[in-house]
Specification:
It holds the Pfam family zf-RVT. This is Reverse transcriptase zinc-binding domain-containing protein. It comes from Solanum verrucosum. By secondary structure, the protein is mostly helical. It is 66% helix and 0% strand. The longest helix is centred in the last third of the chain and has 27 residues. It is globular. The chain binds zinc ion (ZN).
């Protein structure tokens, strides 16, 4: 394995997200996910348009980092924790992100957030592509938070009050 892949590998697989989600996160990190960008590189004559914002080409970086819909999910978690952040490229994203967590428990939660965002984006994109199902941003945010809470509760929650604090709930 190339040296620069060891960090992301560890950060992807140490997450408490379900295994299928970790596999998907690995595809995102290594830019192997089947986006329009990849399909065009394989020679498919498609006109690329991001299904979430309809404003840009669907590239890996756009869809999972910079799309305005995806950005709202990153911002949602950052605002809950009052964290300042500028989005790096994939190779550094997970290690930079995980350093943000405070205590060991918080780090465990932080580790789940990128997986949670990417899984939510995948679900919404597939819904729009294959089921003609469009959720508005409030529903997408709600679904992302519900997924985050479910995974924390299933696998790693140690103290419900800490999680409520982290999420900024009343
Ligand atoms: Zn977009």
């Amino acid at each position: 394995m190339p040296e620069n892949k060891i960090g992301p590998w560890k950060n992807v697989w140490e997450s408490m997200a379900p295994t299928k989600v970790k596999c998907f996160a690995w595809l995102v990190i290594t830019k192997a996910c089947l986006t329009h960008e990849i399909l065009q590189k394989k020679g498919l004559p498609i006109v690329s348009r991001c299904m979430l914002c309809i404003e840009a080409r669907e590239t890996n970086n756009h869809l999972f980092l910079h799309c305005k819909v995806t950005s709202l999910l990153w911002t949602m978690f950052l605002s809950l924790t009052e964290t300042k952040w500028s989005m790096p490229e994939h190779a550094n994203l997970l290690s930079c992100w995980i350093r943000r967590g405070g205590s060991k428990t918080q780090k465990t939660w932080w580790r789940i957030i990128p997986h949670c965002i990417w899984w939510t984006i995948r679900r919404e994109k597939n819904g729009r592509n294959f089921e003609d199902r469009f959720n508005n941003i409030q529903k997408i945010k709600g679904s992302c938070i519900a997924t985050f809470y479910f995974w924390c509760k299933e696998h790693c929650i140690e103290n419900a009050e800490q999680l409520v604090d982290l999420l900024g709930l009343p």
